[in-house]
Design a protein that fits this description.
4 helices, about 350 residues, mainly beta, single chain, 16 strands, six-stranded antiparallel β-sheet
Length: about 350
């Protein structure tokens, strides 16, 4: 599996390392979050509206348009991109017409022309005990296919949501499910938030090896955001390929990143929830991939937590120590992917 496919897997550090996220925030310039035990009552989750988050576009055409998402090439890239909302249900129309419009038969998994991509969403929505039950979803997904471009390298193309308002001193969870083709090394799909000093999210996503997993090839990607002392406006971006830069062109600190990609990606079941401090700390302590962003800082760091001997909150209160070794802590399997805090 490619680079990003590895990163998106749950990080599996010691549970104390995950809990350390919360107490590390103040010393890194972030809003403080107090860690809580796994059995702590979660205060609340409040839904933040994202227009057309289920891609329920109307119309009988194979490729349907979105009204509230803006699509464009990224950077200076161009090419023949095939994109739009498609219905992945088994009874959504003639397979021949679907393949002709989407050009997915160019990929090995659909080359026989006898099958189409499947989805876990929109199934058994009236039966909470049914297989692959995702209430409130449908079988439509956003597709981006860049394989039909003139360049063998592909291109960079994506969709941006309408503005999403984030309140100061608040905690948010963004969730996106995606399913991709087999991309070349260091290329792939992109899920990111823009509007901060730097974009944060996932790049070079390739989960093609999970095409037969329990959710029919779709994998969930989650971004957690802890805001500081001011409100902010962000956009959620769903892409294949990317192009971005840091610094001012001509200066020694200028860095350009270009990742044209050739392949397809489906995006679906997008949610955003505002969390209470307890809910945020609880989830962050039980998830591996945690991307945390602060509006005051604009530098990315990797934070090692193996040398921590005690956990303290911003007011100096001890939240836990390792004076007794691992007594009272739960150990989970380790992975060689480092903990990442995006500051």
């Amino acid at each position: 599996m490619k680079n990003m496919s590895k990163i998106k897997k749950s990080l599996t550090w010691l549970a104390c390392a995950a809990l350390a996220f919360a107490c590390l925030l103040p010393c890194l310039g972030l809003t403080a979050v107090k860690a809580v035990k796994a059995d702590t009552v979660i205060d609340y989750y409040t839904t933040v509206e994202i227009s057309e988050n289920q891609f329920d576009a109307a119309g009988s055409s194979v490729l349907k348009s979105l009204n509230s998402w803006e699509s464009s090439y990224i950077g200076d890239y161009s090419g023949n991109v095939i994109s739009g909302v498609v219905d992945l249900s088994t009874d959504s129309g003639k397979l021949e017409d679907f393949m002709e419009k989407t050009k997915l038969d160019a990929y090995g998994e659909f080359a026989d022309g006898k099958s189409k991509p499947t989805t876990p969403f929109g199934r058994n929505t009236n039966d909470p005990n049914g297989n692959l039950y995702f209430p409130g979803t449908n079988s439509k997904a956003l597709m981006i296919n860049t394989n039909d471009t003139d360049s063998k390298r592909g291109t960079a193309y994506g969709y941006s949501s309408e503005d999403i308002e984030l309140k100061a001193y608040s905690y948010y969870k963004f969730s996106v499910w995606t399913k991709t083709s087999d991309f070349s090394q260091d290329t792939g799909a992109v899920i990111k938030l823009s509007g901060f000093d730097y974009d944060i999210g996932f790049w070079n996503i390739d989960n093609s090896e999970e095409i037969n997993n329990s959710t029919l090839g779709f994998t969930e990607y989650v971004i957690y955001v802890a805001t500081a002392e001011k409100d902010s406006t962000v956009k959620l971006n769903l892409q294949v390929g990317d192009s971005y830069s840091f610094g001012e062109y001509g200066n020694v600190d200028y860095i350009a990143h270009n990742h044209p990609s050739s392949g397809y990606a489906f995006f679906d079941n997008i949610t955003c929830n505002k969390l209470s401090a307890n809910a945020f700390a609880h989830e962050a302590s039980n998830r591996g991939n945690v991307l945390v962003h602060d509006f005051n800082t604009d530098i990315g760091k990797s934070v090692g937590v193996k040398s921590i001997t005690s956990l303290t909150s911003m007011d100096g209160e001890e939240m836990g120590s390792f004076a007794g070794g691992m007594n009272g802590w739960t150990r989970i399997d380790e992975d060689d992917t480092p903990v990442r805090l995006i500051l």
